[in-house]
Amino acid sequence: MRIARKPVVMLFTLIFVTLFGLGAGACGSISPPESCSNTGFDEAAFSEYFTEMYLINTATGEPGERDPEQGDRYATDDQIAVRIESLGEVEVRFCIEQRKGGGQIVYDQLHNIAQGESTVALTTFDSDPYVIRVIVNEALVRNLTFFTE
What we know:
The protein is an alpha+beta fold. The chain has helices spanning 5-27, 43-49, and strands spanning 50-57, 65-67, 71-74, 80-86, 90-98, 105-113, 116-121, 129-136, 139-148. The protein has one domain: Macroglobulin (MG2) domain (Immunoglobulin-like, Sandwich). 20% of the residues lie in helices and 43% in strands. The longest helix has 23 residues, at 5-27.
């Protein structure tokens, strides 16, 4: 009894494509979610609105311990805030996403920043690496990276 090759090849192709598609979908998106990403980091726009911006632990007022690859380190029970020195009033969008597992957005809010020094309290975060995308007038002006453990 002879088995026709074409149906067998088509069956294996269908199985491979189905399994590969399911595996790729389970891994999530490799690029940042569209709702949080913008066209590029704009240093000139940052300089137009701000002189300084960095992360702090709200309890201590100090930045986390710096890791050159992961960003600032915080404990999972630390409340994190963004310290800002603004040149004028500006509306800022803080979009925070995980840097692994498909980039799930965990925080996405607008804040009105006054001229001078401001602190925007965020929240605590589960143990993971994150990026805060700072957006002004649809321009990505800063990426602040940190991780919690």
